[in-house]
Amino acid sequence: MPFPLDTEPATVLRGAGLRVTGPRVAALAELREAGHVDVDSLARRLRARLGRVSTQAVYDVLRVLTDAGLVRRIEPAGAPARYELDGGDNHHHLVCRGCGTLVDVPCATGIRPCLETETTDHGFVVDEAEVIYWGLCPNCQASALTPNSAPTQQD
Amino acid sequence: MPFPLDTEPATVLRGAGLRVTGPRVAALAELREAGHVDVDSLARRLRARLGRVSTQAVYDVLRVLTDAGLVRRIEPAGAPARYELDGGDNHHHLVCRGCGTLVDVPCATGIRPCLETETTDHGFVVDEAEVIYWGLCPNCQASALTPNSAPTQQD
DNA sequence: ATGAAATCTTGAAACATTCCAGATTACGTG
DNA sequence: CACGTAATCTGGAATGTTTCAAGATTTCAT
Predict the structure, then answer these.
(1) pLDDT value at A113 more than 80
(2) Is A78 exposed, middle or buried (CB count within 10 Å of its CB: 0-12, 13-18, 19+)?
(3) How many Å apart are CA A54 and CA A57, to the nearest integer?
């Protein structure tokens, strides 16, 4: 959010006080194109772009970017984590139970109220409200009776 | 929710069209006492009560009970899944980032709006809105500067 | 009481993620 | 612009949760 989406990745990294490395630059670039990626597919993208990239590096990069607030981790129940650029708009996610397809849902739209944060409960200090809507995408609704298409992690 | 909390476990199972077995009866009984349990601690409880119970049986039982709507699975990001009796009240959860403590948060209380379900978006048919609030419990707030207590899965 | 289907046991596998030790790299200093 | 140090990356192994597979046991309707 502190950076427009078209800011040079290296600039974004420096602005966040992070070192500029190949995997990090490439990760930011790929995340811009890819939407919501899991670790495995991001690793494939990085390797296609850079050659050899260790699995550990992928996890490290994502952790660093996440900790810096540049990237947001989404972890739908029962599925590997996905990552997306953090645009600071605090949107939520809609996940298909059938195929795992994940789409963004804007916060505070229509019947969908945005949630208060910075609230206190049970003595807790709440800093984030994570909302995940579960349902069936059009495709999986169609094949609900004839389950022929194997669940696939689409974007 | 079809059953009062004090209904005999065997009756609950039969009412849901499920077979009555030792592990299932014990699981329902333990879940009443335990609050939010992970698979491992439920397994320990079942073994203490019944003697030998396979890990697989624990997973099978929880899946069956979950599919039947008697039990609800909570899967906070980065932590093993927890299970609780499904009272049908559609409450949400508040998780401590420090120690993993999990507490219930009633739906539609004060600034906390209950979410619409049965809504359609992107062609999706939404059947559930899952909300997880993240924050710090009182203990972890206190030890935020002097992180001495190792994260523990409390209830 | 009997049999078919569901459930449980045991042991192994799959999977995402993390740990470890050492080599390499980025970048503030001199 | 060369250096040194801390941060980062590589490669390989390990961890821990969850699932798979095959066979024994149990539940429940007949």
Answers:
(1) no
(2) exposed
(3) 5
Strand partners of residue A143: none
**Nearest-Cα residue of chain B relative to residue A137:** B124
Which of B132, B136, B137 minimises the CB distance to A130? Answer: B132
Q: Residue A140 CA to nucleotide C17 C1', Å?
A: 30
pLDDT in tens, B93-151: 888 888 888 888 876 543 344 445 445 667 888 887 888 888 888 888 877 655 444 44
Q: Which of B110, B87, B150 is nearest to A121 (CA)?
A: B110
Q: Which nucleotides of D are covered by protein (CB under 7 A)?
A: 7-13, 16-21, 26-28
Check: CATH 3.30.1490.190 for A89-147? yes
Residue A131 forms beta bridges with which residues?
Answer: B131
Type of residue found at B109: T
**Domains of chain A: which residue ranges?**
1-87, 89-147
Domain A1-87, what architecture? Orthogonal Bundle (1.10)
Q: What is the Rg, in whole angstroms, of the alpha carbon atoms belonging to chain A?
A: 17
pLDDT of B11 over the 80 cut: yes
Q: What number of other Cβ atoms are within 10 A of residue B20's Cβ?
A: 13
Contact A78, A120 (CB under 8 A): no
Residues 6 or more apart whose CB falls under 8 angstroms from that of A39 comprise: A58, A59, A62, A80, A81, A83
Q: What is the pLDDT of residues B54-81, one digit of tens each?
A: 999 999 999 999 999 999 999 888 889 9
CB contact under 8 A, B136 and A125: yes
Phi, psi for A10 (deg, rounded to 5): -60, -40
Please determine, for residue A151, whether its predicted confidence score (pLDDT) is greater than 50. no
